[in-house]
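**User:** Hello, beginner here. Are you able to go through the protein record under this note? It all follows right here:
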Amino acid sequence: MITDSMILHMLQECRLSPPDSLHFAILDWIILGRVTGARRSEWCQDGSGIEMTTPCLAHPIPEPKAFIFDDFHFFDALHRRIYNVSGQNANEVAFVKICWRFQKNNDNGQVIPYSRDRSNPEVCPVMAAVRIILRASALGLPSSSPLAIYAPTSSSSNFTHIKWGALHGADLPCYEEERVELRRGPSGL
């Protein structure tokens, strides 16, 4: 479990990092995950490639198992949908509805709303979701690709997918036995 003191430590560590950095990307997913309870397969990927679904009648085309752009819908305080979240209208976001396309309990397609926490903006899950979308947009992520990405510090690619596993070469504080592994995403993205 990620404790409040761990979050505060990570916030301090991120203060000098760019918003598209690995540190901020992981922190945003942790902040969102503390409220949503997302499993790792729902936000990041295992293995060397993007884990795709098996085609079936409900989903004839393989899709990433992890969250994609279409899974996050933002709304203002009057429940009007904000279709294109940007730095200019991010403060208007009052809540996000997240579609859980694939779940272990097979309640696939479930949509759950999350409200903004204006009293604690640094750890607000809705603002973490906004930053996740803004990061993915800024880095040119294709709409059907998993959202858990960051900007590599020295690379010719625009983004790198966050992978799960043992930590390799990243300067991140680790608090538990399971750590985040960084690998390049598929080269075609």
Notes: The two ends are 33 Å apart (CA to CA).
